[in-house]
């Protein structure tokens, strides 16, 4: 279909078909913007020529310690230059980048090392205890640790492992990058919190990341020379792919290790930050900070937020700070944001603050790199666009993952019906803008982090006094949501909320630990299934 009758001699060849890859962005930037500031972090300031050389030496250094094409190279790093450099340096030697959430617990990091079969791992010196404990907990071969001290933050090397700058120095500046022969080759591996305990490994390809970067630039009209502050952790969907994107327009990435109000305001005032993304908790931090933490600046900062929609009062206060907020939506499985609440001034210019906030809280419309969003009912029929009917958000396009690593059953289930099934329930307005009505029921999103209620429940159920545990989201002013545990105790057991929380904290990351424990007989259906919707109502009232 669509072919001309005679296309002899019109085949793909080296001149007319080059596999798409975000690696090309930095290669081009080195030529076009060699002297422009590429990465800034305190005293660390490199232009595009220097950035490209450091990335090249990193790729070469990794091959010299035994990393081969197709191997996984993991990171346990905050948003520092090494994490940005890894986004190009790891794929430049044809390895697959696996940025791991630094807030995870030891057993989950051990599982990810094992499941992804990491050959090497770049580790911030402050996170060495986590990495070393995880390696001790592994079943398979251990990754080689490359230690990344951070002088800017006063964090020194332990001296026990190969150091990052020594690895860079060992690399060849004339190393030839290995570009993908096929744009479907794997670029990155990201683990997502699923609705069942262990995280699933989401695999990205070069084509998807390339189109993600191009579509975002078009939609957000970024340029010329944006100054982008890394608030979104680069372990979340590779920082929404923004490290790969910024070189296209010769922009600057400003690294932010610790997200505090003063650090954000300092970056805006001193570095001229023009754009950043972050969870609603970041906006809350900025509007509620002490006056002495704020700095004056004379330009509008474009802010992109994802997660639970910011409260209208927060949106109004952020606007007063000189920031314009756009709400976006996406998942790890879609390389990050794929819809946005695209503001249409010709339609909404006359809206008052309340109407503006209501519109801005929507998840919006598809960005250019994906197909229009489908919201469909259980019969796979599009719902009425009446802002009332509910259905599941379904997505398709080039920025949908290849699938889940070593999990064909989960991959098949996710792609049922020819779409990626998000598990998020939404309404659709007559103008096609979507708005989430309810999340995939059992995921709690706290400060931008996904928490599996099943994982927390399993942990609590391991306590000798617990008969039944059910965990739901409880609204929280600072974090958006936090885990609330409803506990049915065994006969004769004494209520000890503090003891239960301590028990959970020993086994889970801090952000997954219940912030409230309620002892009661749990509401159940006739078949004995816990009625979580009832518990959600109670948690909301707490």
Automatic annotation (TrEMBL):
Give the enzyme's EC designation. 6.2.1.44
Has keyword Lipid metabolism?
A: yes
Keyword terms: Fatty acid metabolism, Ligase, Lipid metabolism
Q: Name one GO molecular function term.
A: ligase activity
Pfam families, sorted = AMP-binding, AMP-binding_C
Q: Provide the AMP-dependent synthetase/ligase domain boundaries.
A: 28-405
Catalytic activity, reaction form: 3-(methylsulfanyl)propanoate + ATP + CoA = 3-(methylsulfanyl)propanoyl-CoA + AMP + diphosphate
Q: Member of which family?
A: Belongs to the ATP-dependent AMP-binding enzyme family.
Recorded hits in PANTHER family, A to Z, give:
ACYL-ACTIVATING ENZYME, BUTANOATE--COA LIGASE AAE1-RELATED
Q: What is this protein called?
A: 3-methylmercaptopropionyl-CoA ligase
Q: Which organism is it from?
A: Cognatishimia activa
